Amino acid sequence: MTIIHCLGSGLVGSFVIKKLLEENLEVNLVDIEKKENISDNNLLTIHITDAIEYCKSTLNQDEIFVNMLPGSLGFNATEILISRGKKVVDLSFSEITPDSLNQKAIDSGARVLWDVGIAPGFSNMLIAYASRLGGGVSNAEIRVGGNPVEKDEKWSYMAPFSPKDVIAEYTRPARIIRSGSETTVPALSDIHKINVEQAGIMESFLTDGLRSLLTTIPAEEMTEYTVRWPGHIQRYIDERDANIIDQDQLIKDWKFDNSREEFTWMEVKVDCMNGEKMIWTVYDQGRDEDSSMARTTGLVTLSCIKQWISNSELIEVGVHPPESLPNDFIANVSQSLKDQGVEINGPGIIL
After folding, report:
1. pLDDT grade, residue 265 (50/70/90)?
2. Which of 290, 309, 335 corresponds to the end of one domain?
3. Residue 48 lies in a domain
4. pLDDT at 58 over 80
5. 89 and 14 in one domain?
6. Of 290, 309, 326, which residue sits at a domain end?
7. How confident is the model at residue 335, as a pLDDT?
8. In this structure, is residue 351 part of a structural domain?
9. Does any domain span residue 350?
10. Mean pLDDT of 254-278
11. Alpha helix ranges (H) inside 218-277
12. Residues 219 and 150 in one domain
């Protein structure tokens, strides 16, 4: 049996672990502390230890590492695992992306599939599918966000993953494609209102979320926007410009509240070179005490793990982004989301 080593058990990590155990897979959980939302299971072994040191230890050959650590810690773990020739499903969202380690992976025999969440991840897969079917991409736009159902008088936001990673997302300049070339624009620019069918009027602004798509899918125009309730990002900009942002306070203010209803929404629009236009929307409001972001992100990750286990040669040696995956793989990811009640509207994946 393939052993799954899960690094991190935060909001998304704990969901992935729960689902892996439901599939009767053997899981080693690695975290610096045991989380209350992790239940005992005879297929689960919990290692309360430093994830980096764990990655350096001698382990079995038939294994897959699922990296769900935050930021630079996640990159460090992937770098170690690559040096040891391991199989890695990388969900960490570090500023330095693992494709920079591709030659090291080739040299060591490591196999890495990275950015396998909802966005980046499923969004990449949909754009790749549209490109294949439509003879290339003229314009692609991704809009995505996880937000509370009800606005409030404060930030109208709570972070479904590490608040530090959200702050990093707000500070990095956004790399986009304009006129066929990569260009950099200020973070949080091009703020505009959009209509989200299930929520009403929200705001959308540019963030640095294209990552691998900047080099893998040729396009005339390509952008990714983050979606928040109106007023949220302007408050952040005003406090940033006034130099009064308190990062520690933001982390407290944006802490995820399990008792508060929330939703995740994504829209992927692609204008193809053959003139065809493809639009997908994804919506989830969580269920069974699992948040929408944990579900939409974690179900993509879970499908990638299961499909790799079913076909051990699916991922070749090297570091691979989600848009490199074949159409049947993408169809299986889409169906796995739908099977768990995630609402997806748009063209079906034709094999």
Report:
1. very high
2. 290
3. yes
4. no
5. yes
6. 290
7. 97
8. no
9. no
10. 96
11. 232-241, 247-253
12. yes
**Tokens linked to 253:** 């203010």
Determine the structural domain holding residue 260 and report its residue range: 122-290
Contacts from 248-257 at CB under 8 Å and sequence distance 24+?
Answer: 250/163, 250/167, 251/163, 251/164, 253/154, 253/155, 254/155, 254/157, 254/158, 254/159, 254/163, 254/166, 255/158, 255/159, 255/163, 256/11, 256/158, 256/159, 256/160, 256/291, 257/158
**DSSP annotation of 39:** P
Write down the residue that tokens 């499923």 correspond to: 122
| pLDDT tens-place string over residues 280-332 | 999 999 998 899 999 999 999 999 999 999 999 999 999 999 999 999 999 99
Q: What integer is the mean pLDDT of 266-275? A: 98
Count of H helices and E strands in the chain?
11, 16
| Residue 307, number of CB atoms within 10 A of its CB | 18
Residue 241 corresponds to which tokens in the numbers above?
């410009």
249 within domain boundaries:
yes
Assessment of whether the complete model's pTM goes beyond 0.85: yes
Domains held by the chain: number: 2
Which token pair is 271? 């204008």
Cα–Cα distance, 213 to 176 (Å, whole number): 9
Residue carrying the six token digits 């040696």 = 317
